Amino acid sequence: MEELIFLINVYSDLERGIATVALEDAGIPYSLKDYESGNYMRLLTGSSIYGCEIDVAPEDYDRAVEVVMTVLGPGIFEKQNQ
Length: 82
Known about the structure:
It comes from Urinicoccus massiliensis. This is DUF2007 domain-containing protein. By secondary structure, the chain is an alpha+beta fold. It is 45% helix and 20% strand. The chain has a three-stranded antiparallel β-sheet with strand order 1-3-2, covered by helices on one side.
C-alpha cells in the first residue's frame, strides 16, 4: 500500500463527515485515524471528543486541500496551527 500523508485534523463529527463526503465525491481516496480512544467513543456514543486525522496519497494532496477548503472554508487549515 502506498504511503499516505497528513491532510488535516478535524475535531467534530460534522467536519469529519463533510470533509470525507467531499473527498469521496472528488474521487480522492483517504484514510481516517482516530486519536486516543476516539474510535471506541464514536462506536459507543456516536461522537468523539478527540480529533480525527485524515490522510491522503501524496499525489492527491493539493487537490484534497482545495476540496476541503471549498467545503469547510480556508480557516479550517489555520486551526491546525493552534
